[in-house]
Amino acid sequence: MFSTILPSKRSIAITLPSTFQRRYASKSSKQWLSRQSRDPFVRQRNQGTDIDPGTTFRARSAFKLIELNERYKFLNGARTVVDLGGAPGGWSQVVAKEMEKGPKGVVTETSKPIDMDGEPKMELHEGNELQLPTTLGRKIIAVDLLPISTIPGVISIQGDFLAPETRRRLVQAISPATGVDVVLSDMAPNMSGNRLRDIDLSLELCTMAFDFAKDWLVTAQETGKPHGGVLVMKYFEHPELQAFRKEYLQAAFRYVSNVKPTSSRSESSEAYWICSGFKG
Ligand SMILES: C[S@@+](CC[C@H](N)C(=O)[O-])C[C@H]1O[C@@H](n2cnc3c(N)ncnc32)[C@H](O)[C@@H]1O
């Protein structure tokens, strides 16, 4: 349950920024420092959780995925997971830990080579394939504009997901025989402050993630499980995003839920769609 994962309110102690910071930081950085010092998830990030008491998460956002997965269990038994907007790697760390818990498998996946930084290191010819890093026969592929430093078992591809070349490299890393069990998208545009423009950018990221999911997710029929392939996607509250949910997501998936995890800051309009039962 969440209580075992999420930091309890009682354990929150307030640490004031150092004298230097208090004296010299600008008003907005003071507000930021103060918010960080009061944020139980920032503290918890460095202390690990019951998924791995020793894990230091790279991002506070790891708690959002832990919470979503606690509730919907989409990572249970997943063999191939794609993590869009994966930097600095908090979500991929959670996925890798969850996959380690699954039944042990044999590393059999082969594909064209993409190295851990996403750059092809060498050109291989047909029939001369490389084994990709997998976690016990499972595969995690993370994509981001920014580099993701090595996480064991995670293939990272640096590039713009909106660019066809990046999607081509991503597709190269997927095994066509297995497809993808879970597509995660925590992608968020750099907010410009112009609400309309930010919503447009967010809608564009959601549309591309959905298009990719439609092409690669396994169907409920293929998995023999009612929930089939799952798409977990960040969005920002806006009527246009709700229209997108109705028109596209609800047509392609049997179940679509809106969730605002406890660990998502209340002042942010972000939330997540959990789409399962992919119809294909
Ligand atoms: C909130 S962060 C993701 C945090 C991540 N889930 C974690 O736990 O470490 C959003 C990420 O989306 C990435 N992003 C935004 N637009 C992108 C795009 N067009 N292609 C790839 N990544 C993108 C950003 O670079 C940023 O790293």
TrEMBL record:
Residues 27-54 are annotated as: Disordered. The active site is at K234 (proton acceptor). The keyword Nucleotide-binding does not apply. The keyword Cytoplasm does not apply. InterPro entries: RNA_methyltr_RlmE, RNA_MeTrfase_FtsJ_dom, rRNA-MeTfrase_E, SAM-dependent_MTases_sf. GO terms for cellular component: mitochondrion. Signal peptide: none annotated. Residues 57-278 form the Ribosomal RNA methyltransferase FtsJ domain. Gene3D superfamilies: Vaccinia Virus protein VP39 (3.40.50.150). Keywords: Methyltransferase, rRNA processing, S-adenosyl-L-methionine, Transferase. GO terms for molecular function: rRNA (uridine-2'-O-)-methyltransferase activity. Belongs to the class I-like SAM-binding methyltransferase superfamily. RNA methyltransferase RlmE family. HAMAP family: RNA_methyltr_E. This is rRNA methyltransferase 2, mitochondrial. It comes from Tulasnella calospora MUT 4182.
